Inverse folding.
């Protein structure tokens, strides 16, 4: 893909929230802000360029019933690519998708290994289902398999209680997070409820997925420790359906899910206003389709996050958080070009004009 032809991205390049430039060049698959000397065979794309979008909670290689074949995983990754999502933090996958790393035409993936859940306390077929005594060992194993992240399931319905309940005793979570950090990996956890959050944050967790249970009491704790959240609002929108499905067997759980759903926008806006880093994640894979990154950005704006901050949550800010470059000199040319200024209306993200990956125009 990275051949010797030159691509000229004409128009406005949004290299940072306060860094707008006049065009860039792609030479040998990499970004240059200097017009290459003697460039021939120049292809041009024109519009408003953003760094390739980040979907910070996505599952490649996961389907409704667990692992899927490589050809299905490839289709998932291509759907994300079409939507402009060129950097994925895979928040847990039972499939080995390492082969994607050799494909210059597929989005880059930062893996968290396979989900680690308590026995019978998660969607069947997704996770390692274990007991607390084995948590440190499994976290160590997934930290070595992944790309700097480990994914825990922090809470789930406890059928005996009939409601959401924490999956791990405090001591087990503490030891597991310490082990991940010792191995250089960050830890994130799926949490819907209020009750799992304090222990995980005080144990040193780096990020919480969904985080619907954030309260006014917990928000300052997250903010002071710099714990990020990935709200996945396009997923939270399904809570009323889930609640309806579980109503007859688990009425308490259903009511709880409805309450979390009802206050979801207030929760996310309060978190952002308090200074908690908020990032874009769709939770694609499993039950939700891939390619919803623009919808999630729009949801953050609906929740009351200013458009520039919502854009940063899938571009500049998200890339910095994940340690990957944006539109900087010499970086791989992963970018998306739009017809109009996304800062004026983030809904333009739903219709990329051109997607450029590793310097190649892929759509
Ligand atoms: Zn997920």
């Amino acid at each position: 893909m990275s051949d010797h032809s030159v691509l000229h991205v004409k128009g406005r390049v949004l290299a940072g929230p306060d860094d707008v430039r006049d065009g860039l060049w792609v030479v040998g698959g990499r970004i240059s802000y200097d017009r290459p000397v003697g460039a021939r065979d120049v292809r041009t794309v024109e519009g408003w360029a953003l760094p390739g979008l980040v979907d910070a909670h996505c599952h490649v290689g996961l389907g409704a019933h667990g692992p899927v074949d490589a050809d299905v995983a490839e289709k998932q990754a291509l759907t994300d690519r079409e939507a402009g999502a060129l950097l994925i933090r895979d928040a847990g996958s039972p499939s080995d998708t390492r082969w994607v790393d050799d494909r210059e035409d597929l989005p880059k993936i930062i893996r968290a290994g396979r989900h680690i859940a308590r026995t019978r306390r998660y969607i069947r077929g997704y996770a390692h289902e274990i007991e607390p005594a084995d948590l440190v060992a499994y976290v160590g194993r997934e930290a070595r398999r992944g790309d700097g992240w480990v994914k825990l399931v922090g809470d789930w319905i406890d059928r005996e209680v009939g409601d959401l309940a924490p999956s791990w005793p405090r001591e087990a979570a503490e030891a597991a997070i310490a082990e991940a950090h010792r191995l250089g990996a960050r830890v994130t956890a799926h949490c819907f409820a209020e009750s799992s959050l304090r222990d995980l944050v005080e144990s040193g967790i780096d990020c919480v997925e969904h985080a619907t249970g954030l309260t006014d009491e917990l928000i300052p704790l997250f903010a002071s420790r710099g714990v990020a959240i990935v709200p996945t609002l396009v997923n939270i929108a399904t809570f009323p359906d889930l609640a309806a499905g579980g109503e007859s067997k688990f009425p308490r759980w259903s009511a709880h899910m409805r309450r979390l759903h009802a206050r979801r926008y207030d929760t996310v806006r309060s978190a952002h206003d308090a200074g908690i880093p908020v990032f874009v994640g769709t939770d694609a894979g499993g039950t939700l389709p891939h390619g919803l990154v623009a919808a999630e950005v729009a949801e953050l704006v609906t929740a009351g996050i200013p458009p520039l901050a919502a854009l940063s949550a899938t571009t500049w800010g998200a890339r910095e958080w994940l340690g990957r470059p944006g539109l900087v000199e010499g970086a791989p040319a992963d970018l998306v070009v739009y017809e109009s200024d996304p800062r004026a209306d983030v809904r333009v993200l739903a219709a990329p004009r051109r997607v450029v990956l590793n310097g190649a125009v892929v759509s």
Notes: The CA atoms of residues 297 and 310 lie 6 Å apart. The longest strand covers residues 6-16.
